[in-house]
Write the structure tokens for this entry.
Amino acid sequence: MQKTVKMAQCALSAAMIAVCAWVTVPAAVPFTLQSLGVYLALLLFGGKYGTATVATYLLLGAVGLPVFAGGGGGIGVLCGVTGGYLWGFLLAAVVFWVWHPKSQRGCAAALAVGQMLCYLLGTVWFSLLTGDRFGVALVACVLPFLLPDMFKTALALWLAPRIKKAAKL
């Protein structure tokens, strides 16, 4: 029974990430709430099931469901210029799983390290596919998102214990 509940939670959380990916916040460079969904899945269900959630989300997108930002889906998105950032979510989830943080401070550190690795993988991927120098890609693809991503991390750290308490997770 417990395993079935965990699988259902992963499926619902993958859907939550998809909904977060569709929510675009207008700014000079618009951003989505996709990473907020990833962070919440990790904080709510831990590394193992949080990673399973992210993998499920990527699998749903890979088979063509419109779960990625802008309603995108398909293997082409995962192999496209921003695909490295999507794969970076999985890398960040694995880091969280391996880190296995027990405290709020540990969770914050694990999320921050995971986000930095996501930035690194995504930016290298972007650079290789576009031919842009790494520094140019970093300025275009990471700098505009630093503050919003810090805010989303803080929001996830604040929301997760409240959701756990309310949902009795």
Summary: The beta strands are 24-25, 31-32. The longest helix spans residues 34-62.
